Automatic annotation (TrEMBL):
Domain Rieske, first and last residues per copy: 2-100
Enzyme Commission code(s) on record: 1.14.12.19
Annotated Gene3D superfamilies: Rieske [2Fe-2S] iron-sulphur domain
Enzyme class name: oxidoreductase
GO terms for MF: 2 iron, 2 sulfur cluster binding; 3-phenylpropionate dioxygenase activity; metal ion binding; monooxygenase activity
InterPro entries: Rieske_2Fe-2S, Rieske_2Fe-2S_sf
UniProt name for this protein: Bifunctional 3-phenylpropionate/cinnamic acid dioxygenase ferredoxin subunit
PANTHER family recorded: 3-PHENYLPROPIONATE_CINNAMIC ACID DIOXYGENASE FERREDOXIN SUBUNIT, FERREDOXIN-RELATED
Signal peptide per UniProt: none
Record keywords, A-Z: 2Fe-2S, Dioxygenase, Iron, Iron-sulfur, Metal-binding, Oxidoreductase
Top-rank taxon, per record: Bacteria
Amino acid sequence: MIPVCRIDDLPEGEAVRITVDDHTPAIAVFHAEDGGFYAVDDLCSHQDASLSEGYVEGCLVECPLHAALFDLRTGAATCLPARRPVRTHEVAVIDGVLHVRPAVREDAVA
């Protein structure tokens, strides 16, 4: 798991963007309004826009470019113009530090 930040450093309703390596897409880590922490691919599935710069509403993030909504819990696109989901990543809090385990890319080769 990759350490992101202390949970106290990510206010509710905010997000942080992390990069893992040159082969893994950037990840947006959110502190949702339900108090939960969620991580999804940072790139909107509709068009190139950073979801970490979007607007958090409950457990949804609104893309800042065309207002598509994504459920942070499942990655599902909940309204147009987005039709495809974004990938979710495992999140854990360990000793007050937020950690993310990037999901394995489906097209990755062993």
